[in-house]
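Researcher: Re-running this chain for the archive, since the previous output was lost when a drive failed. Same request as before.
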Amino acid sequence: MASSTYLSNPVLTINSVDLTDMCSAATLTYLVEALEDTAFGTNSRSYTAGLVNNEVTLTMYASFAATETYATLFPLVGTKTNITLTPASGAESATNPKFILTGCYLESLPVINASLGELSTYDITFMGGALTLDTTNP
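Model: Regenerated C-alpha cells:
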C-alpha cells in the first residue's frame, strides 16, 4: 500500500508578514456548500455545489512586539487580507504546494487569553476568500 506523510511544519504569512514562528496550529478548510436539489418523486436526497466558503483557523502565540501577532492582526479585524500556507519550508512544488487565500475576512481577535503558568495563545479564524494553489518555484 502506498502512502505519503510529512512532518507538520507549515510556513505561514498573513498580510505579507511571516508569522510562522508565532503559530502552533493551522487548519485550512476548502468547503463547497451543499445545496439540496432533491425533487418530488425521489426517495433519497440529492445535492449540488453552492458557494465556496473557505476557512483558516490558526492558534497563535500572543506577542505585543512590533511585527508580531498583535501588531499584524489587530489592524486586520473587520477587513479582508491575504494568507499563504505551505505544508513545509522549501520551494513550492507538487509535493509542497503553497495555498493562497486572497480576500479572506477576520471578524474578531481575542486580545488577551491568559492562564497562570502557560504561554498565552489565541485561536483566530479567517473566513471566505478565493483559494488558489501555487506549485511553481519562484
